[in-house]
Design goal:
about 375 residues; Rossmann fold; five-stranded parallel beta sheet; 15 helices; peptide-O-fucosyltransferase activity; GDP-Fuc_O-FucTrfase; glycosyltransferase
Length: about 375
């Protein structure tokens, strides 16, 4: 009996020795709002939140919705981004590794609590697994919650309030080694103070190589302009809400977080093909571009733009089999980029370009009226 006990102890010590447990605790969350652009905004905020609380962030997989699939698909974080650059900013671990090596020691099944601001859906708890993608996300790791914890009135703004101390005081790591949130512990759109964290998101060689291969072997030699078009039916409907939501989605990226640079317009949200062609021509001329690369969720306007740019001897291109992440990597390398101010997909490309000191613009912004006012003011 003593021999069996000794073997068990030695085995436990050996296993634990190979795993570094963070005494400050961990943060987990479901990136359950929107598609990639929204999830990326939330990720930057969650990274800042984890650093402020000095807890290791478990990098969740990206939630994707694929045609024909009844439920969301979870793609490992490291499929798209490198881990090493993130570690230069703060401690992170991919969720798959956390669940395999750390969770059995600090977060056993009988102690798994879901954290939410208030009761969600039907009932009096967080209902962390209710609906898609919530259920499929946690099921990916065979996670079930035994209880709920309402953390209100605490919030995620660790830059302007004494929130980090309040969180750690209310939920010390000794008592709550894992804070598992039903949604991202971050605001949308990304908080102004967290935008610069984009520089720690570095594409994997797989994405980078595909982007470079396209630029070198498909685009003609010379400068190129990258553009992002949102023109699907869902986007048309979203733009109808501008009148009542002047800071819709990622609008603060060009209008400011207090609309100090203007109010969102239909020309910005859903520009006409003619307006797009006009703005592209100006960019092509200014940057002496030889080609235009188009990323879109629906209509790339290839025939229309090809005809519009024919006299300028500029060709128009898109990926033969568009992949959003490769699109973004290509847009990040364009000599000039024009995107949709309201779109979080555009926001990702804009932040990456800002981090690398590259110029960008937006459809219909600034408006002609705003430009004329600025010019008149400068003349005076």
């Amino acid at each position: 009996m003593m021999l069996k006990l000794l073997i068990h102890v030695l085995f436990s010590v050996t296993v634990s020795a190979g795993v570094d447990i963070d005494p400050n605790g961990y943060i987990l969350y479901c990136p359950c709002m929107g598609r990639f652009g929204n999830q990326a905004d939330h990720f930057l905020g969650s990274l800042a939140f984890a650093k402020a609380l000095n807890r290791t962030l478990a990098l969740p997989p990206w939630v994707e919705y694929r045609f024909g699939e009844p439920k969301s698909v979870q793609v490992p974080f490291s499929h798209y981004f490198e881990l090493e650059p993130l570690l230069k900013f703060h401690r992170v671990i991919i969720m798959e590794e956390f669940m395999e090596n750390i969770a059995p020691k600090v977060w056993p099944p009988e102690k798994r609590t879901a954290f939410c601001y208030m009761a969600r859906g039907q009932g009096t708890d967080c209902n962390a697994k209710e609906g898609n993608p919530f259920g499929p996300f946690w099921d990916t790791f065979n996670i079930d919650f035994v209880q709920s914890e309402f953390y209100g009135p605490l919030n995620y703004d660790v830059h302007h309030q004494d929130m980090a101390r309040k969180w750690n005081s209310r939920y010390p790591s000794q008592k709550s080694p894992v804070l598992a949130f039903t949604g991202a512990p971050a605001s949308f759109p990304v908080q102004l103070e967290n935008k610069d964290l984009q520089k720690f998101l570095v594409w994997t060689p797989r994405i980078v190589n595909r982007a470079i291969d396209f630029i070198r072997n498909v685009l003609p030699i010379g400068a190129f302009v990258g553009i992002h078009l949102r023109n699907g039916v869902d986007w048309t409907r979203a733009c109808e809400h501008l009148e009542h939501s002047p800071n819709l989605f990622s609008a603060p990226q060009c209008l400011g977080y207090r609309n100090e640079f203007g109010i969102a317009s239909q020309d910005m949200c859903f520009p006409t093909p003619d307006a797009i062609a006009k703005q592209v021509k100006l960019a092509v001329k200014e940057y002496h571009a030889k080609s235009v690369f188009v990323s879109s969720d629906n209509d790339h306007l290839i025939p229309f733009l090809t005809k519009a740019l024919k006299r300028m001897e500029v060709t128009v291109h898109k990926l033969a089999n568009p992949e959003p992440h490769v699109d973004l990597a290509i847009l990040g390398r364009a000599n000039y980029f024009i995107g949709n101010c309201i779109s979080s997909f555009t926001a990702f490309a804009k932040r990456e370009r800002d981090a690398n000191g590259l110029p960008s613009g937006f459809w219909g912004f600034p408006s002609n009226r705003a430009s004329a006012t600025k010019q008149k003011h400068e003349e005076l």
